[in-house]
Amino acid sequence: MVGSVSRSRTSTEALSAPRRAFESVRHTGLRALVWDAKNTSSVLVARALRARGWAVDWIGPATSPWGLAGVFDGERITTTNYADEILERVLWEHPLDALFLHGDDQVRWLLARWARLPPSIRRHLPEAAAFESALSKERSMQLARSLGVPVLESERCTSPANVAAASLRLAPGGEVVVKGEGGSAGSAVRACRSGAPPSAPEWRAVARHSPVVLVQRRLRGPRLIVTVVYEHGTEHAACAHEKLHAWPFAFGPTAFGVTRRVEVVHDYAQRVFAALRWHGIANIEFRQDLDGGRWYFMEINPRVPSSIGIQALAGVDVAATWAATCAGRGAEEAPGRAYRDGARYAWAVPGLALALRRPWSAPLWAPRCLLSPSCDLEALEPQLRNRALRLGFWLARHT
Question: Where are the domains of the chain?
């Protein structure tokens, strides 16, 4: 069992204060495993579960500071990389009642071992074909188009020269977006002027995982992200927020956001996840064309998004909804789309970096939001808040 695996724990003194905050919560006997991808979403998920009486175990890289959070009241298992044999030993033997993935690489790791995944894991995941479609920008676009969801005209390219030629056809006099497969957090997406090939560093970024990239004209309208919880194709929760600013990449993690309800976007999202018979947490991104107002499908993130936190603030706790679903109470506890419009939220690390590096581009309410409960800093203990702030300063200086 899991007890045979070596683990590291933080000191009892460091955990005592955060644990006291949950002492009055009645334990349910249910146990979750949170697989960290080095962002604060894992802490926010654990807080939601602890508030419902769940025990929460953590597994993740030794380089992640968030595994030290006192909200993880169970085991802490550190890994070196995705080739670490400890991953199979833990996941195969863990008595988990819910699994929370936080990175695309985690999804790819599971897909590579799909045929031998134990039922204890498979029951918390969609089918392999759904995962594969969601991970692939090209396949997810094809699915969306077949469902009547607007998708931008795209061209497949295999060289910087191909990109330059395609950009003249797709966006004469404008800009295009070049999207590579296999990236995450915007690392494989770049914007280029029409007629100009990507630079050598840009091409390496987008073509790192696949020699074929997609090219689309660049839209300048609002970006809307819908975060959902589904149970075998049935929607239990959905909350949309506008991605106001991202950092460090133009298409990277959200720094500041505000909830915004657009029913046609919710309808598009429901078509896609129902067709996939989705099972779990995910998000899906759309962008509006200012010429005509149409919303276009962009991509799917098939796991807990790094931009979690704003949903619970607005009234839809997606982590708690998925926990209820795993416990067999998803339908009766489904919050649906009952969220508050206009809820503002800041993610401290990218938000602070953006505010320091490009203060003119941050919203006027950014400083106040970063220092308020409407920020993921609020979920962290003092030592981890200091770490988040240091990371924000580092990101501002080095990107």
Answer: 2-125, 153-217, 223-398
